[in-house]
Design a protein that fits this description.
Elements (H helix, E strand, L loop, with lengths): L22 E5 L3 H7 L4 H19 L6 E8 L7 H24 L3 E5 L7 H14 L6 E8 L1 H15 L4 H5 L12 E4 L18 E4 L9 H12 L9
Parallel strand pairs: 1-2, 1-5, 2-4, 3-4, 5-6
The protein binds farnesyl diphosphate.
Farnesyl diphosphate (FPP) binds next to helix 1, helix 2, strand 2 and helix 3.
Length: about 240
């Protein structure tokens, strides 16, 4: 099937996206193992993970991707030790503080999927400021999944659909956290694990899946290009023949 190329926002202007993938999502796994292999604290793995996020967001703008969704904190991650949760919150805050100007300047629209309001009040305040500041941007959408679990998202969407009337695939889909995003084309997971871990289960119904052994802190834009090339070579039939 042929997908139409999509316009790119930000300073990249309009450009043909030959691969045709509009929406790419990533399960960024392997920060802990990256650190352990080097006898470093897990927190260092997460720090290097944020650097990989920054590299990728910068590169994605030039690759013709309309939306990038990153799994940063799952509903299950609350089971991690308190100090690791605090490290992740601290990294998220620093990431917003240090990168928001760059997003704003480059037309990136920040979006959160998941119930981020369960986060500490100072983090929620920062997030809401960043959402408001980038809401009018029309370039790449960067969706960060925070306190996100797909089953929770589907249950919330179904409840909202039911409150409005009939429950159908269409009415549920219209209530998902991703409702205003293009359909998911490509789902990537790093670190060699072959599972979806409660991430975008509904949206992945027809997505291409790409798994790599690379640990997240080592993930480079070239790996995304590899995944996009794989995507471009797939024939997607969406259940037809
Ligand atoms: C998986 O590694 C990664 C996470 C649980 C969190 C991902 C978070 C970041 C990359 C940093 C924060 C993100 C942003 C957007 C600021 P793991 O700890 O499960 O690794 P392991 O499986 O090797 O232990």
């Amino acid at each position: 099937m042929t997908r139409t190329a999509s316009p790119l926002g930000g300073d990249a202007g309009l450009r043909e996206a030959g691969h045709g993938a509009r929406h790419v999502a990533i399960i960024m796994d392997g920060n802990g193992r990256w650190a352990t292999k080097r006898f470093l604290p897990r927190a260092v793995g997460h720090q290097r993970g944020v650097e990989a996020v920054r590299r990728l967001v910068r590169a994605a703008r030039g690759m013709g991707i309309e939306a990038l969704t990153l799994y940063a904190f799952s509903t299950e991650n609350w089971r991690r030790p308190e100090d690791e949760i605090a490290d992740l919150m601290g990294l998220l805050k620093r990431f917003i503080l240090s990168d928001l100007d760059e997003f704003a300047a480059n037309g990136i629209r920040l979006k959160i999927i998941g119930d981020y309001k369960a986060f500490p009040a100072d983090v929620v305040e920062l997030i809401e400021g960043a959402l408001a500041r980038t809401a009018g941007n029309s370039g790449t959408t960067l969706a960060v999944a925070l306190n996100y679990g797909s089953q929770d998202e589907i249950a919330r969407a179904a409840a909202r659909a039911a409150a409005k009337g009939a429950i159908t695939p269409e009415t549920i889909e219209a209530e998902l956290d991703t409702a205003d995003m293009p359909p998911l084309d490509l789902l990537i997971r790093t670190s060699g694990e072959i599972r979806l871990s409660n991430f975008l289960l509904w949206q992945a119904a027809y997505a291409e899946l790409w798994f790599t052994d690379v640990l997240w802190p080592d993930f480079e834009p070239a790996h995304l290009e590899q995944a996009l090339a794989h995507f471009a070579g797939r024939e997607r039939r969406f259940g037809g023949r």
